[in-house]
């Protein structure tokens, strides 16, 4: 996977909290350091995200995005 975002943090999906429209996905990117992304439920389902999966928090000045391989 190649991306142009410079701030990409690899981590493990620690928790997924589903909501009616959005899902809250928390990654542990370092011991004791979590990053949480809120995304549309359909986007999370398209990524097939599950707890324990390796994913990347992609951080731009105005956004935090989530990517998986």
From TrEMBL:
Keyword annotations for this protein, in alphabetical order, are: Molybdenum
Give a GO biological-process term.
molybdate ion transport
Q: Which residues form the Mop domain?
A: 2-68
Any Pfam family from its record, for instance, is TOBE
**Would I find Cell membrane among this entry's keywords?**
no
What SUPFAM superfamilies does the entry give?
A: MOP-like (SSF50331)
Taxonomically, the superkingdom here is Bacteria
Keyword Mitochondrion in the entry? The reply is no
NCBIfam families xref list: Mop (TIGR00638)
Q: What is this protein called?
A: TOBE domain-containing protein
Q: Which organism is it from?
A: Iningainema tapete BLCC-T55
Q: Could you read off the lineage of the organism from its UniProt record?
A: Bacteria, Bacillati, Cyanobacteriota, Cyanophyceae, Nostocales
């Amino acid at each position: 996977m190649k991306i142009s975002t410079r701030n990409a943090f690899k981590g493990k999906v620690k928790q997924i909290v589903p909501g009616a429209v959005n899902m809250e996905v928390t990654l542990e990117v370092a011991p004791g350091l979590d990053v949480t992304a809120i995304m549309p439920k359909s986007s999370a389902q398209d990524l097939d995200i599950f707890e324990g999966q390796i994913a990347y928090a992609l951080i731009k000045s105005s956004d935090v995005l989530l990517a998986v391989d």
